[in-house]
Amino acid sequence: MRVGIIHTASSPCGCAAAIARGLASLGHEACIVDAEQIEFRVAELAARCDIVIDHTDTYRGQGRLRSLVRALLESHGIVIAGSDAKACALADDKAAAKARLGDAGIPVAPGVLCVSADDPIPSWLRPPYILKPSAEHMSRGVVLARSGAEARSRLGELLARFGQPVVLEMFIPGRELAVSVVDGEVLPPLEWVTEAGDAGVLTEAFKLRDVQPGRRDAVRAELAPDESRALADLSLAAFRALGLRDYGRFDVRRSPGGSFFFMEANVTPSMEPEEALALSARWAGMDFPALLGRILAAALGRRPAASRGVREMTVELPAGPVRLRVPWGVHVPPPSTVELARLLDIRPGERVLDLGCGSGLLSLAAAKGGAGRVVAVDIDPRALDATVENAGLNGFSDRIEARAGSWYEALAGGERFDAVIATPPQTPGRRPFGPRYGGADGAKHLLAVIDGAPARLDPERGRLWLAAISIANVPAVMARLRERFTGVEVAGETERPFTAREYDAMDEGLFDYLESLRRRGAAQFHEVFGGEYVFRNLFIRASGVKAP
Predict the structure, then answer these.
(1) Which of 47, 81, 115 delimits the end of a domain?
(2) Domain that includes residue 15, residue range
(3) 52: which of 4, 16, 198, 496 fits an S-S bond (Cβ 3.0–4.6 Å)?
(4) Closest CA to 341 of 369, 313, 314
(5) 364 — alpha (psi -120 to 50), left (phi > 0) or beta?
């Protein structure tokens, strides 16, 4: 399964990489996208990803705007793990969430919403006070004021700094708890252990400090059985009141008298293995990958039964549209494969070989273009089943034959074709890391396809179509093509944006490795701005088979 991960690249949070590593251990592929580029990448996510985990911290530099990311994802029909845009917006507005919880009978800290430094502080609200911007999170701007004068001074500072209303509420002394809910289950609560100088307040600095396995500032909360039951019941009621789903976390205060006060809800709790959500899951018997699997299963369970487990799409081609059904676990054709399908020059009656057929899009494009016979090869049985189903769906069962094998190994001795098509895995790496791995310089499978093509192509009219990416040693690929063919041309190009984190999520240090290849001339990409990079998709046509 391919999972999109939305994050704020400028945030110090390491959640995106942690999620990607956890997904990889489950056999899933991750696609990491910076929230600031979501408008340009959302169509790609809709086409390529089965589900998206949105872990946006801020959008356009503001925490209060991050629900817009989910709204955009929803507008494209993307399945989101976690709460929808409406619930996210409600939970992120501390004043609105506090009002909703209060209406539902959930205890909250008494307080008021201030929009001006001159707003009166009610006499019934006694110091010390907690002040916090209404629509920020990660404890940004949270301060403790011990007097009315200090509160008023801090209020003016926060209003000027954040440009939004400020919640001023009574400070609840006692124990600070984090209560996580996953798929309807309340996990064992965590207690934060603050230093004396923190006055029991979790500041932004506290939450951003580096943590190591076995951290000492977070322990399992010890509560009496009746307290645990009461807290669990309140947490589920709060979860329902805010309309949350799949997973979330509440910051809760336990007063010295034993009362629980719900301070705020977090729809994107930190997903790093040593943070509150993962620690509570561990105490409940779930390791980090199991936690991710539980969250994904909860989200996927919302899909209509008829479409659960399959992605349906229509691809417009020059010869007409083709329909695709792509089951979970089979690679959804990326935009580059779609572009190659549109460029193919298949003539009526030709014989075509599709190497690494996946869901069968290129085989369908060949048949749609008039091919008399198409042999589709893949090593994944799920891909072969998908190709067979899609051939039938489009009326090409009599022309498309699926075979299991690696590259040319599935062919009989004398079989030849008019066209060979291939989009092999070609991401470089120091070591194998997943289905996109293409060898040390990315060219391993490309060269294997090129070397085997002359023996399988018609000597006169045969041609090889390749989709290659510019980080996969294009000079070596082009040199090998010219050794084997008299005519080699780049029939088209597109650009593919990426970030360093996207590749580091596949394998730690992978982007630095790509940089080393670029310095040697074995990879070609460039930075466009602020940590965003671009490589090229090259659509190559080779013809005129040279004699051995």
Answers:
(1) 81
(2) 2-81
(3) 4
(4) 369
(5) alpha
- Tell me the Ramachandran region of residue 116: left when phi exceeds 0, alpha when psi lies from -120 to 50, beta otherwise: beta
Give residue 107's pLDDT band: very low, low, confident or very high (50, 70, 90): very high
Q: HSE (CB half, 13 Å, CA atoms) of 160?
A: 7
Taking only the tens place, the pLDDT of each residue in 441-472 is 999 999 999 999 999 999 999 999 999 999 99
Residues facing 324 on adjacent strands: 313
Is residue 537 assigned to a domain? yes
Q: Of 266, 299, 263, whose CA–CA distance to 280 is shortest?
A: 266
Rank 58-67, 233-242, 431-440 by mean pLDDT and report only the highest.
Answer: 233-242
Say yes or no: 347 and 471 in one domain.
Answer: yes
Query: Domain check: are 25 and 148 in the same one?
Result: no
Q: Identify the band that residue 304 occupies on the pLDDT scale cut at 50, 70 and 90.
A: low
Question: In angstroms, rounded to a whole number, what is the distance separating the alpha carbons of residues 547 and 432?
Answer: 35
Number of domains observed in the structure of the chain: 3
Inform me whether the pLDDT recorded for 19 exceeds 90: yes
**What tokens were used for 109?**
């800290």
For the chain, give the mean pLDDT.
Answer: 90
**Same-domain status, 222 and 119:** yes
Q: What is the dihedral of CA 78, 80, 83, 85, to 10 degrees?
A: -30
Residue 385's CB: how many other CB atoms inside 10 A?
16
How far CA 491 is from CA of 102, 146, 460, in Å, comes to: 63, 70, 20
Residue 173 region by backbone torsions, left for phi larger than 0, else alpha for psi between -120 and 50, else beta: beta
Which helix (H) or strand (E) segment holds residue 176: the answer is strand 175-182
Q: Is residue 423 included in any domain, yes or no?
A: yes
Give the pLDDT band (50/70/90) at residue 506: confident
On whether both 41 and 185 belong to a single domain, the answer is no
Please provide the distance, in angstroms rounded to a whole number, between the alpha carbons at the two ends of the chain: 42
Secondary structure E strands in 439-524: 463-469, 485-499
Of all residues in the chain, what percent carry a pLDDT higher than 90? 71
455 and 388 housed in the same domain: yes
Contacts of 425 (CB under 8 A, 6+ apart): 356, 435, 436, 437, 438, 445
Q: Is residue 278 part of a domain?
A: no
